[in-house]
Design a protein that fits this description.
heterodimer; A: 6-stranded mixed sheet; 4-stranded antiparallel sheet; globular; B: mainly alpha; 14 helices; membrane (chain B); cell membrane (chain B)
Chain lengths: 258, 366
């Protein structure tokens, strides 16, 4: 188990959090990920964008083995991802994930949603887990709803709970899979605010998102994917102002052009 | 433009739209054709209900001890009265009824404890019911320990046997069904194939065949010194048969849980069994209550089939009593009584399941 180091935005070159070397994945005959090469340093914030079906969700879902890759090597926090169930669970404990559709557990209250993994995976006593959960619910500004059930909350509130639920496991890296795509426009900001705060605290983040404003404010690097390949990779300022490839230019003109 | 500057106060609904008269007009006498149907329906109901009540209660004989006491035109409940203890205990020796009574009382007590929400220690009660109660029940009913005379299982019968078969079947079928359903959804080919074959085999064979094979064929294959009790064989057959059905009900419920639930739990580092036990199963079981109870009810009624292997459950013992030459000609009373007892149990299960559904649904909407 890797030790969760203090969250600093220090990006020393040897301190790699996620490494993907020549990762390839197929769904049957369909080649979804093609020679993916990506290295994410501790404390780095990556935004992944691209047209739908370009493989961006699949890419981050490979990191915690929700999808299996067929070729190449993935290393998370120094541990190579193998077929071994124990190893997969070990890596998942240090990788938080936030889903497009929140995926809160509807039969558990907000507080229980946050406590269940610390209690059953990390074997923390209930008292300690609840205190931890309240601390993070406080951070995402939803502590007053702790006794409610997910079905009683708005989408934005649910997504903030989902973020708190992941943070309760003290992850080394957070994966965001289109966290605002299923939200009504007036709720996007409250989720993005929480994500920006998280980024400012130095959390290592990989976000699949179309929120270009978010990318501009917090990302260290923006990655553009198309047809299962990483097409372009750059700091946000040059990425948005001076995209290199034609496909990136087309994509940016489509999403920024209205 | 602003439409209303002031809030409109709540006004009463127009006359004739609420109250019993309005309900009658809206639902039963809504136009001439519906009125005719309503009146016709009431008449048919009258034709059916009045003679039934007349037969079962008003013209019935209740007390006595032989068929001569049944002089009236209605039902002869004297027959059921005289045979009541047999209907309850089968051929269990009457001086040992107290043992069965204790088991009955404990059984009823456990059910009541589990069903009444206010009572505490549900978890301990469940453990007691699953681990300790069966031992107590076996020791008491079977005897052979603590100076209790032995009562071999072929003398067990009546409602006692029906309840025994049904509760063992239910308690056994649910966990086996869960394991089979999970196995059938598994990615491991051997586990999956085994579960599919198991389920399809037991589901594809009639229960009568299974019971018959368990009682007649099995001893042919087993070494003669290994003499498994007939009741045990019937119990195993019944449980495995029902677990196959249960597995399919549960699989249906599991399929209704979105994949994202399992993924979210997996992303938190939970193992397969924790994901299933803490996240997927609790949600699925809640949705499956109607299906599970439906299987339980059909199991409860299927226990009557043990008749063909010579075990006398409630219906079996009633039928046996009908052929008694002193009580010939009272088959209607016997069957009505058996049907009524079965109905009471099945209806209670159905009502309890509806109550559970309502209770578990509050505030959990997705």
């Amino acid at each position: 188990m890797t030790q969760a180091a203090t969250n600093t935005s220090d990006t020393s070159t040897s301190d790699l959090m996620v490494e993907m070397h020549n990762v390839n994945k197929w769904y049957g005959d369909f080649h979804v990920l093609r020679d993916i090469y990506l290295e994410v340093k501790r404390g780095e914030r990556i935004v992944v964008c691209g047209p739908s079906g370009s493989g961006k969700s699949t890419l981050i879902r490979c990191i915690n083995h929700l999808e299996e890759h067929q070729k190449g090597e993935i290393v998370v926090g120094g541990l190579p991802l193998t077929q071994d169930v124990k190893r997969i669970e070990q890596i998942r404990r240090s990788v938080g994930m936030v889903f497009q559709h929140f995926n809160l557990f509807p039969h558990l209250s907000v507080l229980e949603n946050c406590c269940i993994a610390p209690m059953w995976v990390q074997k923390k006593p209930r008292k300690e887990a609840e205190a931890l959960a309240m601390e993070y619910l406080e951070r995402v500004r939803i502590a007053e709803q702790a006794t409610k059930y997910p079905g009683q909350l708005s989408g934005g509130q649910q997504q903030r709970v989902a973020i708190a639920r992941s943070l309760c496991m003290h992850p080394d890296v957070m994966l965001f899979d289109e966290p605002t795509s299923a939200l009504d426009p007036e709720m996007i900001k409250e989720v993005l605010d929480v994500m920006v705060e998280l980024a400012e605290e130095g959390m290592t983040m990989i976000c699949v998102t179309h929120e270009m404003g978010f990318a501009k404010t917090v990302a260290d690097r923006v990655i553009f994917m198309d047809q299962g390949q990483i097409i372009e990779e750059n700091a946000p300022e040059p990425f948005f102002n001076n995209p290199q490839s034609e496909r990136t230019q087309l994509f940016l003109s489509q999403i920024l052009g209205h | 433009m602003i439409h209303n500057k002031e809030t409109i106060p709540q006004r009463p609904a127009p006359k004739g739209t609420i109250g019993p008269v309005a309900w009658l007009r809206g639902n039963l006498f809504n136009g001439p054709i519906n009125s005719i149907f309503t009146l016709l329906g009431l008449y048919v109901l009258y034709l059916l209900v009045v003679p039934t009540i007349q037969w079962a209660f008003i013209d019935a004989d209740w007390v006595g001890d032989s068929r001569e006491d049944c002089s009236r035109v209605g039902a002869c409940w004297v027959f059921v009265n005289a045979r009541f203890s047999q209907f309850m205990y089968g051929l269990y020796p009457s001086e040992e009824y107290w043992r069965a009574n204790i088991v009955f009382a404990m059984f009823a007590g456990i059910i009541a404890w589990m069903v009444i929400p206010r009572l505490p220690f549900k978890r301990w009660m469940t453990l007691f019911a699953l681990l300790i109660f069966p031992v107590i029940a076996y020791v008491l009913l079977h005897g052979g320990y603590f100076d209790l005379p032995r009562v071999s299982t072929h003398r067990w019968g009546g409602l006692m046997l029906t309840l025994l078969l049904a509760s063992v079947g239910m308690i056994g079928a649910l966990p086996i069904g869960i394991v089979l359903a999970l196995g059938r959804r598994s990615n491991m080919p051997i586990v999956k194939t085994f579960c599919v074959i198991f389920i399809e085999f037991w589901r594809g064979v009639p229960l009568i065949t299974i019971l018959f094979m368990a009682s007649v064929m099995l001893p042919l294959f087993l070494p003669s010194e290994l003499n498994v009790d007939r009741l045990i064989r019937a119990l195993i057959g019944l449980t495995l048969f029902q677990s196959a059905y249960m597995a399919e009900v549960i699989r249906g419920g599991l399929q209704a849980i979105p994949k994202g639930q399992d993924e979210a739990a997996a992303a938190l580092g939970m193992t397969y069994w924790k994901r299933m036990g803490l996240i997927v199963m609790p949600q699925a079981l809640k949705m499956m209550i109607p299906g599970i109870v439906n299987t339980f009810i059909s199991l409860f009624k299927d226990t009557t089939l043990v008749m063909i292997i010579g075990l006398f459950d409630l219906l079996g013992i009633v039928q046996a009593a009908l052929s008694d030459s002193r009580w010939l000609g009272f088959s209607v009373e016997g069957y009505v009584f058996a049907a009524f007892v079965f109905w009471i149990f099945c209806f209670s299960m159905s009502r309890y399941s509806q109550y559970l559904e309502r209770k578990l649904n509050t505030g959990h909407k997705r």
